[in-house]
Amino acid sequence: MRFAFSDDQLAFRDAVRDLLAKMAGPDTLRALWDGDRGRDPVVWSHLAEMGVLGLLAPESAGGLGLDEIDLVLILEECGRAALAGPVVEHAAVAVPTLAAAEADSPLRAAAAGDIVVTAASGRAAVPFGAEADLLLIERDGVVQAVEPADLITGDPLTSVDRSRPFAEVNWSKAIPLPGADPALFRARAAAATAAVLCGLAAHLIETTAGYVKERRQFGVPIGSFQAVKHHLADALIALEHARPAVYYAAWSIATGQPTLSRDASFAKAYANEAAGLAARVALQCHGAIGYTYEHDLHLWLKRVWSLRLAWGDTPHHRRQVAAAVLH
Predict the structure, then answer these.
(1) Based on C-alpha coordinates, what's the Rg of the chain?
(2) Does an H or E element contain 130, and which?
(3) Which among 219, 224, 250, 194 has a CA at the least distance from the CA of 3?
(4) 55-72 burial string, b = 16+ CB within 10 Å, else e?
(5) Spatial separation of the C-alpha atoms in residues 156 and 167, rounded to whole Å
(6) Which has more pLDDT, 9 or 152?
(7) CA–CA distance from 300 to each of 126, 160, 166, 210, 311 (Å)?
(8) How far apart are CA 118 and CA 88, in angstroms?
(9) DSSP output for 211-255
(10) What average pLDDT does the segment 316-326 reach?
(11) N or C: which end of the chain has fewer CB within 10 A?
């Protein structure tokens, strides 16, 4: 059995990394922080042209007809760049859900990037709800669609990450989607968010390692101190333990394993811990400058803090794993 990504999957990942490096840098993210939108429409259109947004849509609907194994590395790159926008909700959750529900018209539009779809679970506020064209909500064991026109109440809600705005929804207008599996809906969201968290952790570890090689104290780089080395090594070990769990969850969902909910929870719990540790180590190693608004570090830290709570925090997913294992 092959336990490696194909050359095509790696090439696709590299192409997305190059695009995001050129078009979705810290300046783009800061502009979104200071504005009232949660995504850059130019970057979004390029992702659509590359096929990222419709990667999980069947070819008959204008998508690439690929699966979660192909998507997981791309989601990592979105995390590495701290890409703003509902990529998880749109590409990883909504598109396959619309395909399962045989909602052909919105599926084609979503795959092409002509509409923006976001998703949420429960009765909480919806990320990117104020700028989405369609909302998919899993509530009380049913996946429902909500047209956002005239249904968003109030202004987008403030979150720790201002490039990830939330909005309230009028739940009375929700329409059930036949054929959409709520367990799969939640599993896709948790596993995809875990992949993004791995990318965030990787960026934090890499940039912090570079910083401690340059920052000098007592006449030597602070990266030469054993305590700093140990902190970074611990963060890297945690990430390397999380990645296999995330990749396994992607495979489990792509192949329809009966344990996919457990596997997604396992991945999210591990990724939460790895990204949380990477964020803490990055902040400790950067010192006082890491607390400043002017430094880019906080853009990645706040995304980690926000996504660790998205689609279930660590205790929630640990309980899910324990219930599945001990059942």
Answers:
(1) 19
(2) none
(3) 250
(4) bbbbeebbbbebbbbbbb
(5) 5
(6) 9
(7) 21, 11, 18, 16, 18
(8) 8
(9) HHHH-EETTEEGGGSHHHHHHHHHHHHHHHHHHHHHHHHHHHHHT
(10) 93
(11) N
Listed residue (238, 219, 222) closest to 284, CA to CA: 222
22, burial (CB in 10 Å: exposed 0-12, middle 13-18, buried 19+): exposed
Structure confidence at residue 293 as a pLDDT band (50, 70, 90): confident
**At a CB cut-off of 8 Å and minimum separation 6, what does 249 contact?**
187, 190, 191, 194, 260, 263, 264, 266, 267
- Which tens digits make up the pLDDT trace of 33-91? 887 788 899 999 999 999 999 999 999 999 999 999 999 999 999 999 999 999 999 99
Sheet of 166-169, strand order: 126-127, 166-169, 152-157
* Higher per-residue pLDDT: 192 or 140: 192
Cβ-contact 228, 214 below 8 angstroms: no
Could you tell me if 277 and 208 are in contact, meaning their C-beta atoms sit under 8 angstroms apart? no
pTM over 0.85: yes
Contact between 71 and 13 under an 8 Å Cβ cutoff? The reply is no
Tokens linked to 181 = 């599996």
DSSP state of 144: E
On the CB side of 267, how many CA atoms lie within 13 Å of its CA? 32
Strands (E), 33-161: 117-121, 126-127, 134-139, 142-146, 152-157
Residue 7 pLDDT > 50: yes
> What pLDDT does residue 150 have?
47
Buried b (16+ CB within 10 A) or exposed e, 230-250: ebbeebbebbeebbebbbbbb
CA gap 6, 108 in Å, rounded? 27
Could you give the dihedral angle defined by the CA atoms of residues 318, 324, 325 and 327, in that order, rounded to the nearest 10 degrees? Answer: 130
- Which residues lie below 8 Å from residue 306, measured CB to CB, with a gap of 6+? 159, 160, 161, 164
Beta bridge partners of 143: 138
User: What average pLDDT does this structure show over 118-136?
Assistant: 86
